Fold:
Amino acid sequence: MVQTGIESIFSDSNISKDLKIIAEKVIKGDRISFEEGVLLYEKGELGYLGALANFVREKKNGNYTYFNRNFHIEPTNLCVFDCKFCSYSRNFKQKGDAWELSEQEIYDLVKKYDGKPITEVHIVGGVHPKMGLHYFASLIKNIKALRPDIHVKAFTAVELEYMCRKAKVSFKEGLSILKAHGQDSLPGGGAEIFDEGIRAEICADKCSSAEWLEIHETAHSLGMPSNATMLYGHIEKFEHRIDHMDRLRTLQDKTGGFNTFIPLKFRNKENQMSHIAESSVIEDLRNYAVSRIYMDNFNHVKAYWPMIGRNTAALSMAFGVDDIDGTIDDSTKIYAMAGAEDKSPSLSTPQLVKLIKDNGRHPIERDTVYNTVKDYMNYDFEAEEPALDSIK
Ligand code: V47
Ligand code: SF4
Structure:
C-alpha cells in the first residue's frame, strides 16, 4: 500500500508545530479535537491536508475506490418548504415547471431497468402533502415486487419528519412501517448545516438539526443504515462545519449506523442565495481532506460527482475520498438545476472504471452497504459485458 507524502509532513520545516502535533495524532490513530479540526481549515495548506487525508483513506480503504450502479426516482419537486439554497423545488402557488409523477410513471421508470444489474434505487424529492407515509409505504412495496433484488434507499430526514408528523406517528413507528414495506436505508440529505443560527437563515422551516439526528438514530436502532451529508460553501464558517461533523461523529460513536459522509458543495444557480460565490476547487479539496481526517469513525467519504464534475471527483481521490457514487441516470435533477458541472449526469460503468483507474486507484463496484459486487481492476468489458449500461 502506498502512503504518499506522509514523511514530508515531518520533514517540512515550514509546517507549524501545532500542525505537526495534529499529524502525529492522526498517524497514531488518535482522534483530533474540535479546535484542531478548525485549525486544519484555518492553517492546513493543500499539500499537508492531502497527504494526511490520503494516509487515513489508505489506512481505511487501501487503494480501493468504490462506486455503485443505481438510479434515482424523484416523485415530485413540489415542496412545502422554502430552503434558500434550493434551485429544484417549486411551491404550490407558482407551480410553473413542477412535476408530479403518477404511481404508474414511477413503476414504468423501475421497469426501464429490467434485466439491468442495478443494485440500488435512491428515492427523494420535494415534500408533497398528498404523498404521505402510507402512499410511500405501498409505493415501496410495489417497487420491491417489481425488483425484489434491489436495495431501496429512500427519503431524507426532512421528508420523514413531515410524513410522520402528518400521519401522527412517532419516528420509530413511521420508520418501522416503511421498513416492513421494504425500505432498506436512508440517504444523507437534509442535514445541511446543524448550527441552529445558520439553519434559521438558510432553511428555517424544515426539520431541525435535533430532529434530523433523532431520525437517523432511530433508523439505526431499527437496523436501517444511513448516510450523512453537509452542505458547505455558503454562509457557514469553519467552526460550523466542524460542529456539524462533530455532532455526526458523536452519533456514529453511539450507533455505528452511518455508511458514508458526503460533503455537498453549495451551487448558486437559480436560487435565493445566488449572490453568494461558490467555493473554489481548492477549497473543495481541502474540505474533503478535513472531513476525512475529522470523521475518524466513518469508513467512507463520498464525492458526489454529478455535483462537482468528473474532474474534481478525480482529484478528490487524492484528498480522502474513496467513493465516487454511481452510474446515475439523468433523472437526477437537483444538481443540474443548481448549476452543477454535469448537466446530464450519466457515466457508464466502463467510463467510471476508467476514471478511477486513470487516477491510479482500484475500482470496486459495491452495494449500498459496501459489500463488493465486482472487482474491476482487470476486467475486460468488451469480452464480458457488451453494452451493459445502455438504457433506452
Ligand atoms: O439536502 C440542494 C443538497 C441534498 C443544493 O445519501 C444542494 O447517497 C448544493 O442528500 N447546491 C439532497 N447542494 C441530496 C442528497 C444526496 C445526494 C447524493 C447522494 C446521497 C446519498 C444524498 O442536496 C439536500 C441539499 O443539501 N442541495 N440544493 C444546491 N443549490
Ligand atoms: Fe424542499 Fe428539499 Fe428543496 Fe428544501 S432542499 S425546498 S426540503 S426540496
